[in-house]
Structure formats: structure tokens, C-alpha cells
Design goal:
- The complex is a heterodimer.
- Chain A is an all-alpha fold.
- Chain A is built from 19 helices and 2 strands.
- Chain A has helices at about 1-35, 40-65, 70-85, 85-110, 115-135, 140-170, 170-190, 225-245, 245-255, 260-265, 270-295, 305-315, 320-345, 350-365, 365-385, 385-415, 420-440, 450-465, 475-505, and strands at about 220, 225.
- A two-stranded antiparallel ribbon of chain A has the order 1-2.
- Chain A starts with a helix and ends with a helix.
- Helices cover about 70% and strands about 0% of the residues of chain B.
- In chain B, α6 crosses α7.
- Chain B starts with a helix and ends in a 19-residue tail after the last helix.
- Classes of the chains: A mainly alpha, B mainly alpha.
- At the A-B interface, α7, α12, α14 and α15 of A face α3, α4, α10 and α12 of B.
């Protein structure tokens, strides 16, 4: 009896002991569980690529702006503030982009490249604009009917290339693009011909204004309409379709490997045609939302390339529904902030298009971002391994990159008045750039190379005094002195460290 | 008698317009041909034309020599194409995405530079045009004289380039390499030729030719640069390339057909004889696109290069 009691109590004690100490352990277990649940490193890679592309694109566009003679820092300041100040504008711009982006993304998941969302969007918006003023329906029902019919019309515009691809092998990149132009011309004809609004504004190619019942109300602010909610519903819907339904599973299987999917008993033709059909419907909904919520009539050329931007959004969002949402909001912010930047920093709005193009080019080749990422990691480990060379390396790099910007910037501002001096300063910039490239490729001998940009600055100063107005004298002197000090100190350091090694060898 | 004279005059005029409008299309299509024959899809032709047009006008504006403008256009087109080549060949990126990026970039860049150089939003200042070449002996022949007697030098260059491209692609070792890079790159690799460099050259050539097409639009057909002045001609060139079944003479014929439709629109907008069609001009614009869809859907089997669109990995053997 007593033995049992002792045993029991022992068990009890150990049990309670475990429970008490496990407060921390539990936390560790929970943490491990969460960590286990979190997707692996590969899952985050696309996000890393997208963010890297954005940063790289912004950097390159900043350099280009500086070269063109704009104040890049002020421009980005207004861009960011403009985007943060007006969230309703950002989301309004993002709404059609979410839908056209989803359209491209869904097709892509099925291995198809739909580059014709522009046409699908226009056809859908035309359908919505016609239904908006031709039929009379009660509130709430009217916009929904318009959106539904727009989805059908856009869907048809996507389904046709889908069928052609599935059953005739006509490549969808070509057919969707060609159908886009057919749609552009067709809607232009309708808006300028049979459906043109007569009367006071007959000189504008536009249809009659839609009825009040079919308008989408505003959510908040003067711009954001309920089309945004529709877009969010579509994001959730497509996410559900891809993750939880047989149809979505089949589409993804066809996208990964068409032949294998066929062997597994999937009707790949049906999947492809349906994927492009749904893809077109999404773009059509995007067009309808803009007509019912923002423009209230079909105005010739209203879209301004929203469909093409959908490709950009899908690419940046890595073709996942939530990624598309994020990318669309980013581009919406870029556009809203771009307007502000144009207004106050007087930088042309086209810089936004330039940034978009650069983002897409960089996203197209994730290996560029990977290479840069590896380069950064290598540099970091270099600094850790050999701090005596690594840390000065950073200093030299910063000095030379600054010299690069300064040289190019000064040269850009001088080119109009004094081309010779402009060339001289751009040479200084290029020399600094070359030295920083040497440092980036971790050439230890490059450390003392700062003497070259320093000499280049001296030359430029002399030329500036001789034929210019010595405007940049102070700045140039600072650069010369810093460059000289850096190179001398580093040369001495290297000489001190290398000698004993050489003695040993 | 009167009717016949009008008819002859109109035919000559339409032929001339066809040649004029098809020149940029054929040049860009030839560009696309060089890229796609090596196995790299290039939907960025539009962007390369645009940057060529801009560079041509800018260089002519600063130097007052249109031939330097042409040179600048070729170089600028080649440079933009080399970005595409680096992304697609060296970093093995997605070719269609990169092409779309090229178009966006070129659109933004040229409009931006329009504002930087001339300080305007829509259209640049006028510059010197390329002088027309007058061929005396044939200028008196009724129809041919009107069509070919006095044209832009780039029109004749285009016709010559078609023949040269045909010769280069089908009759020279380099052309065989281009074809091999697009049909079976691993065979080319096995023969000891670098697939990457052949593809790089192909893509850069495509940029040069598209830039030339853009230069024609900017300083020969027009005499200024306008925002987005190519208005989809790069895409039509792509259509001509497909419709012409990836051959130089196919490109010429398809380009001429689409150029004729373009010229017809021009005729409709200025000649009273055609004005009854003014209302349906949008439908005439649609014809090239519809034709390509119909062609792809089944009238004729078009045969793209086999390895098109796939980056070449040395390790991956099929």
C-alpha cells in the first residue's frame, strides 16, 4: 500500500513539475509548431523577387531621373506622401488592376498567357455601359445584372481564344492579343457610330450616361466605389477555386504539365478553354466596375491600358490571387502618388510607366535578383570573415557610389550650358562607378583605388575653374580630400598587414 | 477615258501608299524573324520601334542630319533589344514578360524624354526628313512610276533587306546556326557553337531592324516624334511575321497586305472617292487581326521554330 502511495505521489510530483516548467517549454513547442506551419524558404522566394525587383526598379529610375535633371529625392518624397494621403484614390486605381491582374494570373496558372485582358475589359465595359442605360431595373439588381452581363461578354472574348488553343492549337499569346485589337476597334466604332450620344456633346465619342439605378455607390471618400468590394470577392473566389475545387486543381495540373494531366485523366482541353473563359470574365467585370463606379458611360479610350497593366500586376504578384491584390495596390499607390509627384515636383507622370516597365523586366529574370542577393550575402560574410578589409571596403564603396551620383548629377545639370564640363563630370562619375564595381566584385587590391576618383575630381575642379564658374568647388574639394585620405590610410593599412604575411611565405 | 485615267492614277497611288505603310511593318517583322528564328520570342518589337522613332528624331534634331538619325535609331533599338537579350538569354527569364516590360519601359521612357528634350507633352518639334530618292528612268511609267519612282530611301532599303535576310538565313553558315538555335539548340551546342551568343545576336539584330522601322515612321513618313506614335504597329508586325509563316518573303507579303489596308485607311481619310467608307474604317483596321486569328485557327498550319520560347539549359538534355 505504502509503496503504491509513494509511487503515485512520485508520479504526481514529476507530473506537476513538468507542468510548471513547461510554461516556457510550451511556448517553444508552440513556436516550433508555428514555425513548422509557416511555409518553407522556397515559398517566400517569389515575394523576395518581387520586392527586390521593386527596389531595383526604383533605384534605376532614380538614377535616370537624376540624369534627366530632376530631383529624385523630392519626387519620391511626394510620391510616397501622395500615396499615403489618399487611400481611397489608391484603392480606386487598384480596383480594375486587381481584376485584370487576376485574369492574367488565373490563365497563367493553367499554363496559358492571356495578354488580351485589354480587349476583354473593353468588351465587358461596353456591355455594362449599354445595359446601364437601355434597361430599367431597380437599385442593387441593376448593377449586378450589368456586371453579370459584362462578365459573360468578357468571358466570351476569352473563351474564343481558349477554344482555338484547345482544339486548333492556335497560340493564345497571339490570338488574345489580336482579339484585343479587334475589341478596341469594335468598341471605338460603337462609341463613335451607332451608340454615340447625340446632342450637346456629339463631337465626343461616348455613349449615353447610365441610369442612376445602375451606378455603384461610393464606399468612402469621393473616389472609392463598391467595385472594390466586388474585386475583393473575386480574389477570394479565385483563391478558393484554385485551392479547394476540382476544376482549379485540374487547371493547375494542366498548367504544370499538360501531358501528365492528360494521362491522369484530366480533360486538359476543357480546363484550358474554361480557364481562359473565366479569365476573360474577370477582365470584363473589371471594365464594368469602372464604368458603373467611375466613368458612368463608355468614353472612347477610357481604359488607357488597364488591361496591359494587368499583365504587370499578375507578373509582380507571382500569379497568386493575394499576390495580385498586393501588386495592384502597389501600382494604384504608384499612380495616385505619381499624380501628386507630377503636380508638386514637376516630374512627368510617365515616370510611373517607366518604373512599371523596369519592375516587369526585373521580375522576368529572377536570376538577376538572386545574383544580387547572393552578392550581398557574400559581401556580408566577407566582412565577417575579414573585417579589416571588409569594413574599409564598405567605406570606399559608399564614397564611390556617392561620387557616381554626384558626378552624373552635376554633369546632367551642366550639359545644357557647358557641354565640355558636363562630359568631364560624367567621366568622374563613370570612374567612381568603375571603382565601386571593383569593390563589389571584392577585389582586395581595389581598396586603395580611391586615389583615381580623387585625381579625377582634381582635374574636374581645374577645368571648372578654367572654363566654368567654379560652382562646385567646395563639394569637389571635399571629395578630393576624402578620396585621398581613404586611399592613403587604406594603402598604409594594407602595406602593414601584407608585409608580415609576405615574410612568412 | 476619264475613268481609266482616274483608275490608273488611283492604282498607282494605292501601290505607293502600300509600299509606304508596309515599310515599317516589314522591317519590324524581319526583326522579329531574326529573334524568333533563334528561339527567343520578342513581343517587344513595339517598344523597340518606339525608341527607334524617338532616337531618330532626337539625333536629327541635334545634328540636323537625318542619316545620323537613322544610325541612332538602329543603335537605340539594338541597345533596348540587348536588355531583352540579357534578361532572356543570360538570366533565362520569361521572354513574354520581359517583352511586355520592354514595351512599357519604352513607352514611359520616350514620353518622358519628349518632355525633357522639347518640353512638350504630345508632339516634338519638326526635324529634317530623309530626302526622297527619285529614280528617273522609271518615273514616267504609269503605275510603277508613281509607286516606285520617288520613295523614301528606307523603302528601297527595306526591299533589299528582305532579300539579304533570306540569303543570310538560308544560304550562309551563320544563318544555319540561327535556324539551329531555334530548332534544336542542343545540336548546335554539340557542334561547339555557343547557343547564347547566336541568340544574343539574333535578338540584338531584331532590335536594330525594329529601330530602323521606327526611324522610317519618324523621319521619313512623318517628320516629328509623337507620343506612342507607333500605335500598335509592332503588334501588327508580329502578326505579319506569323501570317508570313516565319520566312522573309512571307513577312514581305504579309507586311504588304497589312500595309495595303493601312494605306486604304489613309486613302479613305483624304480621297473623296473613298469617303463613303469613312464610317467603317474601324472594321478595315480589324482585318489584319482577324486574318491572323483565322490563319492560326486552321486555314494553314503555321510552323514556328521548335524551341521557341524555351531558355536553353546546358544540363537539360531532351
Amino acid at each position: 500500500m505504502s509503496g503504491e502511495y509513494i509511487e503515485d505521489s512520485a508520479v504526481d510530483v514529476s507530473h506537476t513539475h513538468e507542468e510548471k516548467s513547461s510554461a516556457f517549454q510550451k511556448l517553444v513547442i508552440v513556436f516550433n509548431k508555428v514555425k513548422h506551419r509557416l511555409p518553407s524558404r522556397d515559398y517566400w522566394k517569389p515575394l523576395f523577387w518581387s520586392l527586390g525587383s521593386i527596389i531595383l526598379a526604383l533605384l534605376v529610375s532614380a538614377i535616370m531621373m537624376t540624369v534627366m535633371g530632376y530631383d529624385a529625392i523630392m519626387a519620391f518624397d511626394y510620391l510616397i506622401r501622395g500615396a499615403l494621403d489618399q487611400p481611397d484614390r489608391v484603392l480606386q486605381y487598384a480596383t480594375p488592376l486587381i481584376l485584370t491582374g487576376l485574369s492574367v494570373a488565373l490563365a497563367f496558372r493553367c499554363g496559358l498567357f492571356n495578354i488580351g485582358p485589354e480587349g476583354q475589359l473593353l468588351i465587358g465595359s461596353m456591355a455594362a455601359a449599354i445595359l446601364g442605360y437601355v434597361v430599367a431595373l431597380p437599385f442593387l439588381v441593376h448593377p449586378l445584372v450589368c456586371i453579370g452581363v459584362a462578365a459573360l461578354a468578357g468571358g466570351l472574348w476569352g473563351f474564343l481564344p481558349g477554344l482555338l488553343r484547345a482544339y486548333r492549337g492556335a497560340h493564345e499569346v497571339v490570338t488574345t492579343m489580336m482579339l484585343s485589337y479587334v475589341a478596341i476597334n469594335f468598341t471605338q466604332y460603337l462609341a463613335g457610330g451607332p451608340l454615340k450620344e447625340q446632342g450637346e456633346y456629339a463631337w465626343i465619342s461616348q455613349t449615353t450616361r447610365i441610369l442612376d439605378t445602375s451606378e455603384l455607390a461610393k464606399i468612402f471618400g469621393p473616389y472609392l466605389h463598391w467595385g472594390f468590394a466586388v474585386a475583393i470577392v473575386c480574389v477570394i473566389g479565385i483563391d478558393f477555386l484554385l485551392k479547394r475545387t476540382v476544376l482549379g486543381y485540374e487547371m493547375k495540373a494542366v498548367g504544370l504539365n499538360e501531358e501528365a494531366a492528360e494521362y491522369a485523366g484530366i480533360n486538359s482541353k476543357r480546363s484550358m478553354a474554361l480557364a481562359l473563359g473565366i479569365s476573360g470574365a474577370l477582365a470584363g467585370i473589371g471594365g464594368a466596375g469602372e464604368i458603373l463606379g467611375t466613368h458612368h458611360r463608355f468614353l472612347d479610350g477610357w481604359s488607357g491600358g488597364l488591361g496591359w497593366d494587368g499583365i504587370t500586376v499578375a507578373v509582380l504578384g507571382n500569379n497568386s490571387p493575394w499576390g495580385v491584390l498586393g501588386a495592384a495596390i502597389f501600382f494604384g499607390a504608384l499612380r495616385a502618388g505619381g499624380n501628386r509627384m507630377h503636380q508638386f515636383a514637376h516630374v512627368p507622370i510617365e515616370i510611373v510607366g517607366l518604373i512599371q516597365g523596369l519592375v516587369v523586366i526585373f521580375v522576368a529574370a529572377p536570376r538577376i535578383i538572386d545574383w544580387l542577393g547572393r552578392q550581398t550575402i557574400d559581401s556580408a560574410s566577407w566582412i565577417k570573415r575579414e573585417p579589416r578589409e571588409g569594413l574599409p571596403g564598405i567605406a570606399v564603396l559608399v564614397f564611390n557610389l556617392f561620387g557616381l551620383f554626384l558626378g552624373i548629377g552635376i554633369s546632367a545639370s551642366l550639359f545644357a550650358t557647358n557641354p565640355i564640363l558636363g562630359v568631364m563630370f560624367s567621366m568622374v562619375g563613370i570612374v567612381s562607378g568603375l571603382v565601386s564595381y571593383r569593390i563589389l566584385s571584392r577585389q582586395e587590391t581595389a581598396l586603395s583605388l580611391s586615389i583615381i576618383p580623387a585625381i579625377a575630381w582634381v582635374d574636374a575642379m581645374v577645368l571648372d575653374i578654367l572654363i566654368g564658374e567654379a560652382m562646385f568647388f567646395n563639394m569637389g574639394m571635399v571629395m578630393v580630400i576624402v578620396g585621398l585620405i581613404l586611399s592613403v590610410v587604406l594603402w598604409m593599412m594594407q602595406a602593414l598587414t601584407v608585409q608580415p604575411d609576405g615574410g612568412e611565405v | 477615258m476619264q475613268d481609266i485615267q482616274t483608275l490608273v492614277a488611283l492604282t498607282g497611288w494605292l501601290l505607293k501608299a502600300t509600299l509606304m505603310m508596309s515599310t515599317p511593318l516589314v522591317l519590324a517583322a524581319l526583326g522579329g524573324l531574326f529573334s524568333e528564328k533563334t528561339g527567343i520570342v520578342n513581343i517587344g518589337l513595339e517598344g523597340m520601334m518606339l525608341i527607334g522613332a524617338f532616337s531618330a528624331v532626337a539625333a536629327t534634331y541635334f545634328t540636323d542630319n537625318p542619316w545620323l538619325g537613322v544610325l541612332a535609331a538602329v543603335i537605340a533599338g539594338g541597345m533596348l533589344a540587348s536588355i531583352h537579350a540579357i534578361v532572356c538569354v543570360k538570366y533565362k527569364g520569361n521572354q513574354i514578360v520581359s517583352g511586355a516590360g520592354i514595351i512599357l519601359f519604352a513607352g514611359g521612357f520616350t514620353t518622358l524624354m519628349l518632355e525633357v528634350v522639347w518640353g512638350v507633352k504630345g508632339v516634338s518639334d519638326s526635324v529634317t526628313r530623309l530626302p526622297n530618292v527619285v529614280i528617273e528612268p522609271i518615273s514616267d511609267i504609269p503605275i510603277l512610276g508613281v509607286a516606285l519612282g520617288a520613295q523614301s530611301p528606307l523603302v528601297y532599303i527595306m526591299l533589299i533587306l528582305v532579300v539579304v535576310s533570306w540569303f543570310v538565313i538560308y544560304k550562309t553558315p551563320f544563318g544555319l546556326r540561327i535556324q539551329a538555335a531555334g530548332e534544336d539548340p542542343s545540336a548546335l551546342d554539340a557542334a561547339g557553337v555557343s547557343v547564347s551568343s547566336v541568340r544574343m545576336i539574333g535578338v540584338v539584330l531584331s532590335g536594330c531592324l525594329s529601330g530602323l522601322g521606327g526611324a522610317y515612321l519618324a523621319i521619313s513618313y512623318a517628320s516629328e516624334f509623337g507620343k506612342m506614335m507607333t500605335v500598335g504597329r509592332g503588334f501588327i508586325a508580329l502578326a505579319a511575321l506569323i501570317f508570313g509563316n516565319w520566312t522573309p518573303f512571307g513577312c514581305l507579303i504579309a507586311g504588304a497586305l497589312f500595309g495595303f489596308l493601312d494605306g486604304l485607311q489613309f486613302a479613305i481619310s483624304i480621297l473623296p472617292e473613298f469617303s463613303f467608307m469613312l464610317e467603317y474604317v474601324n472594321f478595315i483596321k480589324m482585318i489584319p487581326y482577324v486574318l491572323v486569328i483565322v490563319a492560326l485557327a486552321g486555314i494553314r498550319k503555321s510552323v514556328p521554330p521548335k524551341a521557341i520560347g524555351t531558355p536553353y539549359e546546358k544540363e537539360a538534355r531532351g
